[in-house]
Amino acid sequence: MIEQNKIPGNSTEIKENSTWHKVDLSKKKVKHQPKPKWLRVKLPIGDKYTQLRNLVDKYNLHTICTSGSCPNMGECWVEGTATFMILGNICTRSCKFCGVKTGRPDPVDWEEPEKVAKSIQIMKIKHAVLTSVDRDDLKDDMGSKLWVETIKKVREYNPGITIEALIPDFQGIHEHIDRLVNIEPEVISHNIETVRRLTKQVRIQAKYDRSLEVLKYLKDAGQRRTKSGIMLGLGEFKEEVIETMNELNEAKVDVITIGQYLQPSKKHLQVQRFITPEEFESYKEIGLKMGFRHVESSALVRSSYRAQKHIN
């Protein structure tokens, strides 16, 4: 095993010191484990949270924060950050970790950009994170044109706002990625989600190297700040996590988030292990030594956690 504070020089070193196991996660069953104490979330409180929650309910606003039952919702809302999903709520991909519905999406709603912009205005959000389902059905642009229109509208209705675009891979097609780079959100993020060995089982239609290539291309195309996220607890080894961090660093990613995978339903992959706070802290130390600008690493961290701090 690699020592806690030793950063491997390259992937070859990791593989030489590791024992690799081939495992079918969809069939592997582990004994049910109760959530450890560090995964218990306090109910969000405070006047600002209550006010925003009432606005969301009153205007039927759609945020990932509420629909995904994010554990950090209260903290983020109080700090003026929220995450909105565009291009509908049905994804063309069927990742085994994600709770978003899979199927044939509805036609693109070209009024959606204005709806999102008004929602952000009503909530008085200072930093907006926009994300979307994958739209592989849209062969001409895979949804990238609606992404651009949404960012334009959000800025029109909310002068001075900062934006993070948490994008799909757009199948690695540069023409679609360029549209996002050219509209210049403060941060563009794309999550690699898991280690190389588990990608095919966790992200069935995605490719590990394609995600790395998207992240590298973003920087090469001139994007100032890039970001990616990893979830743990799916059966990865610590050496593999460090290997992924190394490869994200080589792709010039500025910010990484590392959090605990939690099973959305019985149909999804089981949690293989709950990662301890001490191990999360070790990844943070390793990441900072590698040179990442920001590393968010703890059990409850999600992609948009403390997102407003990642623009600096």
Overview of this structure, please?
By secondary structure, this protein is α/β, with parallel strands linked by helices. 35% of the residues lie in helices and 13% in strands. The strands form two sheets. Strands 1-4-5-6-7-8-9 form a seven-stranded parallel sheet. Strands 2-3 form a two-stranded parallel sheet. β8, α11 and β9 form a beta-alpha-beta unit. α5 packs parallel to α6. The longest helix is centred in the middle third of the chain and has 14 residues. It starts with 10 loop residues before the first helix and ends in a 15-residue tail after the last strand. The N terminus is likely disordered.
SSE blueprint and pairings:
Elements lengths: L10 H6 L30 H13 L4 H4 L5 H6 L2 E6 L3 E2 L9 E2 L9 H12 L3 E6 L11 H14 L4 E5 L7 H10 L3 E3 L9 H4 L5 H13 L5 E7 L5 H13 L4 E6 L16 H14 L3 E4 L15
Parallel strand pairs: 1-4, 2-3, 4-5, 5-6, 6-7, 7-8, 8-9
Helix pairs in contact: 5-6, 6-7, 10-11
